[in-house]
Design goal:
Elements (H helix, E strand, L loop, with lengths): L4 H7 L11 E5 L3 E7 L19 H19 L6 E13 L8 E12 L2 E10 L2 E14 L2
Antiparallel strand pairs: 1-2, 2-4, 3-6, 4-5, 5-6
Length: 144
């Protein structure tokens, strides 16, 4: 089962221009597969880079983190004043540039969790080619 943008907006606190998940393709007890469609209209392409637009790596990482946050908010019990924070990254590697027109597949699998701390393996691919991979740590914390 997946989710369209309306369900994503209802679950994640992110909004334009910082919402980086367009669709959830699959979600189950072990993880999530989501989609980010990269367009030339992304605001960061104005300055990154003018003559050769490339999606910043940190935003590729953020897209993966948002997919992971969606997974957690959809599958664990939370209180209204709780939010998912990115708490750490380990061994993240970027394999190739992401350009306008690319469709990123964001795949996250839970490796372990203890109380409100979750370790996930993230892999981002485009046309069956790995773009980014690494481990993310997310923590469920209070807003504000």
């Amino acid at each position: 089962m997946g989710a369209d943008i309306q369900k994503i907006l209802a679950r994640l606190p992110h909004r334009y221009p910082f919402l980086l998940v367009d669709k959830v393709l699959k979600i189950d007890k072990d993880g999530v597969v989501a989609l980010k469609c990269v367009t030339i209209n992304e605001p960061y392409f104005v300055g990154h880079f003018e003559d050769y637009p490339v999606m910043p790596g940190v935003l590729i990482l953020e897209a993966a983190a948002q997919a992971g946050a969606y997974f957690l908010l959809e599958t664990i019990e939370t209180k209204p004043d709780e939010i998912v924070y990115l708490a750490g990254v380990d061994g993240v590697r970027f394999r190739r540039p992401v350009r306008p027109g690319d469709r990123l597949i964001l795949t996250l699998k839970v490796l372990a969790h203890k109380r409100k701390v979750f370790k996930m393996y993230a892999q981002v691919s485009c046309e069956n080619e790995r773009v980014m991979e690494g481990k993310l740590t997310a923590v469920l914390g209070k807003k504000g």
